[in-house]
Amino acid sequence: MRQIFTKILSRLNGSGKDTRILLISFLLAFSVWFIHNLSLKYSGVISVPVTAVSNLDGHSDKSSDVVTVTARCRTSGFRMLAARYTNRKALVTIDKTDLKRKGDGWYYLSGPVLNNYAQQIFGDGTTVEAFISDTLLFRFPAELHKKIPVEVNRVINFRPQYTATGPLRIDPDSVIIYGDERRLSLMDKVYSEPLRLNDVHNSLHGVLRINGADGIRLSDTEVKYSVEVSRFVEMRSTVPVEIRNAPSRKGLRVFPSMVDIVADCAFPPQSDVTEDVTVYIDYNDFANSRTGRCVLKVEKGSPNIIACRTEPEVVDCIETD
Questions:
Q1: Which of 175, 105, 113, 110 is nearest to 140 (CA)?
Q2: Tens of pLDDT along 238-261?
Q3: pTM (2 decimals)?
Q4: Cβ atoms of 163 and 232 closer than 8 Å
Q5: What pLDDT, in 10s, does the model give residues 173-225?
Q6: Architecture of the domain defined by 145-227
Q7: Separation between Cα atoms, residue 104 and residue 118, nearest integer Å
Q8: 77, 33 in Cβ contact below 8 A?
Q9: Is the distance from CB of 134 to CB of 97 less than 8 angstroms?
Q10: Nearest-angstrom CA–CA distance, 215 and 224
Q11: How many C-beta neighbours within 10 Å does residue 113 have?
Q12: Which residues fall within 8 angstroms of residue 219, CB to CB, at 6 or more apart?
């Protein structure tokens, strides 16, 4: 090679300018060749140290050990060199349903589910041809924890003639919190960010962030909420007050014996659903009352009734033989 290079120089006029041009041309040609070859796809064995992250109940969110994952991959020469000659480590988020318990905080990942995490492990633009490490074993140490409910501070104002047809539902309705014993003992619930809505006339759904606390880790950082909303019409009727669970030879006289009911019914109403409403007094409530005054109870007979109230809500009762 040296002799060839010497002959090439001898054919030139020998000036320094020609020599510099030759060297520059040679370097440019080599660079183009080198870049072109590195951009091609190659197959080779790549190993990457992996730390697993998962949301396992009662355990640390990060594995305490590092597992080396080895696979035959097809990727560009650039990525092949980077994988072999750099200390790249991968932090891989694994769905807890893919981890199988082995015992004492050990969990393993194997089989076809490994392919679901190939991109996180080896990076974009890399195709895994075959895993050499077919089973990955991680240890997630146990942590102090407890389960507490989630509450949503909400103020929902509805458009006139609209209302919720059921309670506000959240998912999840409770979370697991992690921390030291002192911090855990101080918490019995967590709150989401406030939900404030006005002029609501459609069913609602969305996501709320959960407010955490210093030194506390949450199993979930947000909740999904939903509430069904419907237009309604108000229907009124007058019905008698019934007595239930009275012992034999005992009865109650109620004042007043007839009360008005106000029913919020889903629009459009199918019929006069107030005919299916029953208003009653439970004798046991009277027996436990010191004043003889009892709160009326309402039994809605139709699913089209969203809410129902009585006017008045409380009546006077006198026991009779």
A1: 105
A2: 999 999 998 888 888 999 999 999
A3: 0.67
A4: yes
A5: 999 999 888 889 899 999 999 999 999 999 999 999 999 888 899 999 999 99
A6: Beta Complex (2.170)
A7: 27
A8: no
A9: no
A10: 24
A11: 14
A12: 55, 57, 175, 176, 177, 178
In whole angstroms, how far apart are CA 277 and each of 70, 254, 269, 301?
A: 70, 18, 15, 5
- pLDDT one-digit tens code per residue, 133-176: 788 999 999 899 999 999 999 999 999 999 998 899 999 999 99
User: Mean pLDDT throughout 259-283?
Assistant: 86
3-state secondary structure the chain: CHHHHHHHHHHCCCCHHHHHHHHHHHHHHHHHHHHHHHHCEEEEEEEEEEEEECCCCCECCECCCCEEEEEEEEEEHHHHHHHHHCCCCEEEECCHHHCEEEECCEEEEEHHHHHHHHHHHHCCCCEEEEECCCEEEEECCECCEEEEEEECCEEEEECCCEEECCCCEEECCEEEEECCHHHHHCCCCEEECCEEEEEECCCEEEEEEECCCCCCEECCCEEEEEECEEEEEEEEEEEEEEEECCCCCCEEEEECCEEEEEEEEECCCCCCHHHHCEEEEEHHHHHCCCCCEEECEEECCCCCEEEEEEECCEEEEEEEC
pLDDT band, residue 317 (cuts 50/70/90): very high
What class does CATH assign to 232-320? mainly beta
Rounded Cα distance between 16 and 58, Å, is: 74
Write the burial class of residue 94 (CB in 10 Å: 0-12 exposed, 13-18 middle, 19+ buried).
buried
The dihedrals phi and psi of 283, each to the nearest 5 degrees, come to -55, -35
Name the amino acid, one letter, at 229.
Answer: V
